[in-house]
Amino acid sequence: MQTLNARIQEQFSSLSKGQQDVARFVLSESKLIALYPAKKVGELTGTSETTVIRFCYSLGYSGYSEMQNDIRKELLFSKPDADPMKQYHTTTKDIIEDADHIRMVIQQDVMDLQMALERIDLTVFDRAADAVVGAEKVFVAGVRFSFSPAYWLWYSLNFLLGNVNLFRGQLDDTVQLISKINQDSVVLVVSLPRYNEETLAFAKVAKSKGATVIAFTDSEISPAGLLADVCVLAPQPSVFKGMAAVFSLMNAFVTHVAAKDWPQVQQKLLIYDENWDLWLEHREMSRAGASKGATGRQRQNQDEDVDAPDGAFYE
Hints:
By secondary structure, this protein is an alpha/beta fold. It has helices spanning 4-11, 17-28, 30-35, 38-44, 49-58, 64-77, 92-97, 101-119, 122-133, 147-161, 174-178, 197-208, 223-227, 243-260, 262-307, and strands at residues 137-141, 164-167, 185-191, 212-217, 230-233. Helix content is 62%, strand content 8%.
């Protein structure tokens, strides 16, 4: 049986604009849906009771009551908030104005991490990791606000797998990069608000060439979420909060990929260690040679200084 989120993701593009507004409200304010009648939800979304009910029909429900009951069951059997502090210090202004804002920032990160842990879908993680391990080539795309986590994801996966490319938007020869993509490729798209058109365009091209698209995004109905074959949900970060949870989620994903292909990963790490030792050995030899050469030149200069007549260094 499909979850409500899955139904919304599947039907979102075919919904009217008003129904899409209702869909966003349902995903972000499910507790209010459990409490209020359809008429009130229409008011809160700036639509109407009729639009809310038609939205329910579009998802395959017999009416608003059936959808509301599904949400109530989900909330009833879901884990409760671990700490009522989650209700406080949710905005940047609250945190900065607090005298103990350093602790507040860290507390917010802890809460975001707990929320990310509760949202993890292990089935989705498995599908995404299996796709990456089995891919001929892997590509990571993410620019602007999403670039930092995208770069870290690329660096970590490339270290483990060695077949990972990074798309950096206008800094790259995009055509040359997409020419490498085929149906055996996997494209990991990091798309966090504000969503970037370049990242989405890259994902669309990859999809048209038969590649598997995996999105790290904040919602199933984000532009990348609607396009992706697999959608890994990340907390919605801002400049001042939330990024710790995003990196933690990606760290968990990279670890899961490594676990899936552990024998090959171990072999690559052994080769890396051997080459690292070789590099250090030759670097020290080069430094020793350079130091010896410098010492010889210094002695020669000192000998020349002794033989130089008075005033030879002045014009």
